[in-house]
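In the previous chapter we treated chains in isolation. Here, by contrast, the input contains two separate entities that must be folded as one system, with a combined length of 741 residues.
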Amino acid sequence: MNLLITGADLIGTGRQDLLIRDGVIAEIGSVDSGSRTVDQTIEADGLIALPGLVDLHTHLREPGREDAETIASGSAAAAIGGFTAILAMANTTPVTDTAEAAERVLDLGRLAALVDVQPVGAVTKGLAGEELAELGLMAHSRAQVRVFSDDGRCVADARVMRRALEYVKAFGGVVSQHAQDPKLADHHACCHEGELSGRLGLPGWPGIAEEIIVARDVMLARHTGSRVHIAHVSTAGSVEVIRWAKAQGIGVTAEVTPHHLVLTTDLLSGYDPTFKVNPPLRPSEDVEMLRAALADGTIDAVATDHAPHARHDKEHAFVDAAFGMLGLETALSVVSDVMVGSGLLDWAGVARVMSTAPARIAGLTGHGRPIAVGEPANLTLVDPSATVTVDRETSMSLSRNNPWHGRQLTGAVHATFLRGIPTVLKGGLA
Amino acid sequence: MKRHLLSMNDLDRQDILTILDTAESMHDVQRREVKKLPTLRGRTVVNMFFEDSTRTRSSFEIAGKWLSADVINISAKGSSTSKGESLRDTVRTVAAMGVDGFVIRHGASGAAQQVSQWVDAVVINAGDGMHEHPTQALLDAYSMRQRLGDLEGLHVALVGDLTHSRVLRSNLICLKTLGARVTVVAPPTLMPAGIDTWARREGFDTSYDLDAVLPTVDAVMMLRVQRERMSGGFFPTAREYTVGYGLTRERLRTLQKHTVICHPGPMNRGLEIAADAADAAQSLVLDQVSAGVAVRMSVLYHLFAGEGSLT
């Protein structure tokens, strides 16, 4: 099958045509469609071509809570968001802590066939934080798990974290840490600790509870010579620690969510659980620092932490409601709006933080590649000037906990291609 | 006046004075032999308590009954997340029976505000987690005003477990709105997060030194210290707390003659308040309980009956 994309803006080389043959980029340049058979032509005037986006951090609720999200529905939301690969976190029911569980996630992803669904393996059995899960068996399974995380919970025991970091060196793995000291921010903690949490009477989640784990873990990474990845960095203090650690040559990478780049703690003043997320929304000083750190490379990647929840799990009192918000469908628009719109990142920078870097961190060899002849045609076409008003009711996700509902964002995904197959065209499923 | 009473921020100075003035008439009713007004006849008020309470619930119940409302008590403790039903479903189920008003007590901050968005009925916050307890602040203001007159310019100390106290938050707003000068006193571990910027913004003082504050106040309110806080390491021992922050017999002597003592109850005698202080002539503790009914009658009256129907 031959697919021709005409007039797309390839970052750096200007407007080009792309001929895709059997899932691989076959020609770049001024392609004369008359001289060869083309099954489908996509006009991409005014659109920017990015390598397919990669999300290091999504929660699909299958198995266990298929009412909130399935691998298929989450894959559809991901494709709409311009993603060609997503990493599915391990905190399902049952937990992805065996090779069999990981292979099942992989297979269900292949069945949906909208994005590559790469399972994340649990660090510890049942996410209990005590005994290592079968990390090696997961790594050597068909799923080839490379990213391990107890996300939702912190690997709080320093000895367990040390062993995990040491152990994954054998197969080039990385531990993605949900940095939250459980003594300084327990499971009730749900509002950034500060004047607002004091006034609202909500249990505080102080930045230090994150920073202390980040600091500990970069030292463990140095000590073990291993790689640690910091999930959803939310504070300026964490950024400082990561910047220092990178300057020392420590093997640390970090991600930030779209919501921590924009939304601030004051949104909690109405006790709307839509804005309840872990780590919590922070003050604007942290938000500014996170944007700067993403721009200067201290933070490597944007990751959504897409966390779908059934409506009734959010309709409790604030402290009882579930943590998390949707993110897959809006991530590119948010990054475009806040990072490109402000001049902090150009589109090459977006390609770096949303595709190249996350693919490299996750060890996904078929994604995050340059747009060049011979490379797999995982591509995302973005309309940089389209303005969208987010409507939670139009989501492909089975859930509606969308904090962006009603917001206007500039920059939208127009089309997505997974190995040359269009999964999204004109903003809708192909 | 706003439709609901969720926070003391819902009431401006004039609203508060109106409620307190009406409460005085209600207090007269309370002293009558036949304590019944027809004002809320035909109205149904549900006391929905997701958390144990004796005085607040019974006081709302009596207040509603003396105004001739049909009052129904629902003890909803444990009916929340553990059984899987969402708070929204729980309250909408009751609302669907045709209820005019909810009096909500919940262990989670913000619960009453959330409920007000889910039901059509009037919602009164009877205490939400560590957030607010507006009718307590109103009855405190009522009791203090009875003894001290206008609170404008008076100095009030709020002392104790400030972090976990909804009474603190409502009283801070109420007293500031009425023009009082407020100093909050607690060990640093029991001060709410961000208290310094909060204090600067709202114009009240903070202190770790109870002895320095006590001789300067017109009223001191001792807030309950829950013994289980000790396991959280907020302070080392009950003894040390009492020495630092209890209203002891010795400290009682440092108060000015006219200074009144308040405690929202239940009291830990010997911990935050000595028996001598609780039972002193200056103590308003029982006045507060008595005022509770009158103030809640006034609140129910203003939120349900509106102006002009008081008989």
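The radius of gyration of chain B is 19 Å. The domain at 8-133+290-305 of chain B is CATH 3.40.50.1370 (Rossmann fold). Compare these points with the single-chain example from earlier in the chapter.
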